[in-house]
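Q: Sequence in, structure out?
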Amino acid sequence: MNNAAPTWFGHPRGLTILFLTNMWEQFSYYGMRALLVYYMTKQLMLGQAHASFVYGAYTACAYFTPILGGVLADRVLGKRRAIVTGASIMAAGHFMMTFDALFYLALATIALGNGLFLPSLPSQVGDLYAHGDARRGWAFNVYYVGVNIGGFLAPLICGTVGELYGWHYGFGLAGIGMLAGLAIYVAGQRYLPPELPRTPAVDAEPRRGMARDTVLVLLGVGLAVTVFRAAYEQVGNTVALWADTGVDRNAGGFAIPMTWFQSLNPLFVMLMTPPLLAWWGRRAARGVDQAPLRRMACGAAIVSAAYLLLAAVSWNAGAQAKATTGWIWLLLFFLVLTFGELFILPAGLGLFARLAPRHLGSTTVAAWFLVTFAGSLSAGLVGSLWSRMGHGAFFALLALLALTAAALLWRLDGPMRRADRPQPSDTATSTAIQHT
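A: Exactly. Output:
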């Protein structure tokens, strides 16, 4: 697109449309997710192991369907039609959540709509800019802020309404958020990039990074991140259950709603991303930028430390015969966990995105979600152990899983360097990750 075209905030106007659409979609997703495990255990009266498995299976499906949805968007529907169709289906699913009898059908409906929506929207961000436009990398930073604004507001609004007035009202608000995003996207069509031809194109450029050795290394990275996500995805599952029963949520006479803690992760992402980007930028300028896999390994190790903190707190509470522990420890946990997350998840997407064939943008974005699918499913299985183990032992197990992932990623750094020439810096583009 022409750099001289009218802009908002120094970027093409379409970026604002995509930013707001994504923000409201994330509001709906995280609003529903903040309530999900509580709704299952308190309203539907499902057992903890069953509820944790359903939670993991749902989040896994939400990241599996984009793999198929990306192919449909690239080859059949086109990005715009895929986004509108997917958003409409998701909105219907959220409203179906207001009926207990439709619970499982509603989850399947949301996952189906998400498959069409999720891979197509971020791939449109890059289409807004001409090749070589320096603003392109920073556009993903802006887009990522939208992810976390929606994720921050959702537990505060949907979670509070659900806890105080009824779970179904919270789910209804999530559906309204999805409709808001759909309305913004449809109204802003004229600012969005034109559709590319959907017929398979011949890529005249060599597809770097698709050698056999590189594919094998990426499979190894995918395995490591799967192990990592088995621990990381407990944030909305067993950690949420612990926030309800194992944490003293009293703050000066005010009982902090349990769903509010789900807002800490996106809040810390928004606060920590700018200084981290600035620090990584200064390191890159000095020629000491960290290789992607080493950065990811450090992130997994930091997340391991976060879970070790919870293990220590839980063991200490048990030793002192305390039923609960102070909420400040849960806040500190989210601070450390989010810091580690910013090292591993954005860098992982950036690593995969470097290998993207130009004519298969949505499909390539969707490929990263296969790892998230496997990790979320693993998290559901691991979460089913919550009621069979002591809390301290369970959190120690999560720390071990994250540390195992760190060791695997560090071990893969050498093979990755040999298989694929590293880029000077993945920092700017790597932040184009969906925080779901």
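The radius of gyration is 21 Å.
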